[in-house]
Amino acid sequence: MKLTEEMLSGFPDARGHFGAYGGRFVSETLFDSLMTLEKEYKRLKNDPDFQAEFDKDLAHYVGRPSPLYFAERLSRETGGAQIWLKREDLNHTGAHKVNNTIGQALLASFLGKKRVIAETGAGQHGVATATVCARLGLECHVFMGAEDVQRQSLNVYRMKLLGATVHSVQSGTKTLKDAMNDAMRDWVANVDDTFYIIGTVAGPHPYPLLVRDFQSVIGRETREQCLAQARKLPDALVACVGGGSNAIGMFYPFLTDESVQMYGVEAGGLGIETGKHAAPLSAGRPGVLHGNRTYLMEDENGQIAGTHSVSAGLDYPGVGPEHSWLKDIGRANYVSVTDDEAMEGFRKLTRVEGIMPALETAHAVAYAIKLAATMEKDQVVVINVSGRGDKDIQTVAKLDGIEM
Amino acid sequence: MSRIEGVLKSLKSQGRKALIPYITAGDPHPDQTVELMHTLVKAGADIIELGVPFSDPMADGPVIQQACERSLVHGTSLRQVIGMVKTFRETDDQTPIVLMGYLNPMEAMGYELFANSAKEAGVDGILTVDLPPEEADEVAPLFTERNLDAIFLLAPTTTDDRIRAISEHSSGYVYYVSFKGVTGSGTIDIDEVASKVAHIHELTALPVGVGFGIRDAETAAAVGRVSDGVIVGSVLVDTIARNQADPVQLNKALTDLLHPMREALDNLTV
Ligand SMILES: Cc1ncc(COP(=O)(O)O)c(C=O)c1O
User: Fold this and answer.
1) Which ranges in A4-141 belong to alpha helices (H)?
2) Do the Cβ atoms of A188 and B159 come within 8 Å?
3) ipTM greater than cut 0.90
4) What pLDDT score was predicted for residue B270?
5) How many CA atoms lie within 13 A of B240 on its CB side?
6) Dihedral Cα A272, A277, A281, A282, nearest 10 deg
7) Mean pLDDT across chain A, nearest whole number?
């Protein structure tokens, strides 16, 4: 299907649906808040003061635009298409997550909310939220699965230094989905004074819409930079997919450019065939979780399945509803790479370009190398380097058998 | 007239209030659920809300979360829960049963198959926590066509327009959530509930059941005074948790908890 700007403006529709996906599947207590948020966002989206403030923060606080860097040595070693890197790892706090938290925290301020909650997996979204809350003087509570508190302890401490309260979530599988459950529970209880900053393009409408809008700066910049530096549009975009915010941010501004192929890379964990992975688009089916209908990992009875990934930020059984739609209409391709392949990608980028990617990003790197090898020298592959790998050093060291 | 409507009408004509206990199916073990349901009826239940366990019960506090976990350890499925209702119906064709849960297990089973099986087993109403009427176009007609009551929630944050719209989509009763929070968490403010329920009564002719925060005879009576029925959940589920090792004691503990509530409700002069 060829997408046009006009068609895209209908996604999501007025009720937050992307085709069969998305929507607003929440308990009644939250409904009114979501309606208010949607109404206010629609107003502020076209408010020059709000936009100017957002752009100013992205420029001077986040450090945008982030560079588009030609990875010459990696391209040469791979021996195929040119590999370019969109350097979201160079953003303040070290990942793309901050683009969205700046936007949502600004919304919170415009709405007069003094208390902010967030869920986090890898801790990047938690750190980004704690950061903007410190700057704006907002009370900040971050919910994080107990297992992730263990494997991302560095980020836990960063959040605490920034003044946030970190709640270690003991229920369910003790990872990102359970953190999101507890954030929702907190929100129901404190709906009057609390703004929930969701970290990815999931959740009930209007979250998938507003997170996509805030993250689209990635793709808009990439489009301009690529035209200026490579003198053409990219032939392929590659991004990792947890909930899907860095991927949609990269993809969205290119959706109507028919020649641009898109690859969302899910966490293949120990291998799709083992069932121990986090790849709902590759191996799941549609269902309803966390306020929206989307592809999910679930058992035959509709219970949400446990997930596995070496990277905490991809360890989520669902995915943003817009990706489910893009998959069904065939506009984007969704693939997966295993933990081991991702680790190889991590080492490769580190050794060949001196850029240490987050383990989430390493999935995109691993796939892009495979893809580029099959392409021509005059073609361009852009990898969204969603974050830097400092937070993962302990995990990598442990895999290497080193105690730190 | 549905079984739910019949029971609520008859209670109303006697000036009595409905006692509606909630338990999670399969907690502590799937083999015990039907017996516990009969125990609830003997202790004075007018309607039973039978919880369908879900791995991610976002609107529930720790007590019901843990009940879901206890149940899911045994692999309790929606099909099995419907089977429990069928068994219950072999000896009780009077007490209405409302299945209460989250949407995904129903979606996974397939809505049509679910509606058919539920009807056939003798289920009377469906309450889906994460399905607001705005998303129910596809599902709700399947229930209505089979005379299954669709029961929706109202909350302290629900606007008047939505109270009207939600009531139009509902049958049997509407469930007013007494406070902002998850199950088993906050404390109920009786005056606030009284004025909100009175207001809801002005906007709909449906009976109003009130849940969240009812834990003893005193709160049951206070809420019963201002509504058409009280829904009692976390305190029962907590009692199940504490007595799970001893089935005999468990039945007695549930009876000891519900009985005073029944009496307090029946002693109300309204
Ligand atoms: C660096 C990085 N990349 C990617 C992700 C995955 O999230 P999303 O799919 O929303 O971009 C995370 C999440 O924590 C992250 O920290």
Assistant:
1) 5-8, 28-45, 48-57, 72-78, 97-110, 124-136
2) no
3) yes
4) 61
5) 28
6) -10
7) 96
| Residues lower than pLDDT 70 in chain B | 270
Question: Measured between CB atoms, does B188 come within 8 Å of chain A?
Answer: no
CA distance B45 to B36: 11
Residue-range domain boundaries for chain B: 3-266
First to last CA, chain B: 25
User: DSSP label at A139?
Assistant: E
- Ligand 1 atom nearest the C-alpha of A122 is 14
User: Active-site residues of B: which are they?
Assistant: 49, 60
DSSP 8-state secondary structure symbol assigned to residue A62: I
CB within 8 Å: A181 and B59: no
Structure tokens at A4: 């046009």
Q: Give the closest-approach CA distance of B21 to chain A in angstroms.
A: 20
Residue to mutate, A86, A124, A158, A218, ligand 1, most ligand atoms under 8 Å from C-beta? A124
User: Is the CB of residue A296 less than 8 Å away from at least one CB of chain B?
Assistant: yes
Q: Where do runs of H (alpha helix) occur along A316-392? A: 321-328, 339-353, 359-373
**Closest by CA position to B99, among listed B4, B228, B229:** B4
Q: What is the pLDDT along chain A (404 residues), one digit of tens a residue?
A: 689 999 999 999 999 999 999 999 999 999 999 999 999 999 999 999 999 999 999 999 999 999 999 999 999 999 999 999 999 999 999 999 999 999 999 999 999 999 999 999 989 999 999 999 999 999 999 999 999 998 888 999 999 999 999 999 999 999 999 999 999 999 999 999 999 999 999 999 999 999 999 999 999 999 999 999 999 999 999 999 999 999 999 999 999 999 999 999 999 999 999 999 999 999 999 999 999 999 999 999 999 999 999 999 999 999 999 999 999 999 999 999 999 999 999 999 999 999 999 999 999 999 999 999 999 999 999 999 999 999 999 899 999 999 87
In a mutational test of the pocket of ligand 1, which residue from A85, A177, A245 has the highest number of ligand atoms less than 8 Å from its CB?
A245
Q: Over the stretch A216-274, which tens digit does the pLDDT of each residue have?
A: 999 999 999 999 999 999 999 999 999 999 999 999 999 999 999 999 999 999 999 99
As a whole number of angstroms, the distance between CA B245 and CA B248 comes to: 9
pLDDT per position as a tens digit, A167-187: 999 999 999 999 999 999 999
Token representation of residue B124: 């009377």
φ, ψ at A128 (rounded to 5°) = -65, -40
CATH architecture of B3-266: Alpha-Beta Barrel (3.20)
- Kind and range of the H or E run holding B231: strand B229-232
**In contact, B50 and A159? CB cutoff 8 Å:** no
Is residue B55 within 8 angstroms of chain A, CB to CB? yes
- Please, are residues A278 and A269 in contact by the beta-carbon 8 Å criterion? yes
Dist. CA B200–CA B165, nearest whole Å: 12
Q: For A176-244, what is the HEC assignment? A: HHHHHHHHHHHHHHCCCCEEECCCCCCCCCCHHHHHHHHHCHHHHHHHHHHHHHCCCCCCEEEEECCCC
Q: Model's pTM, two decimal places?
A: 0.97
A274 touches chain B (CB under 8 A): no
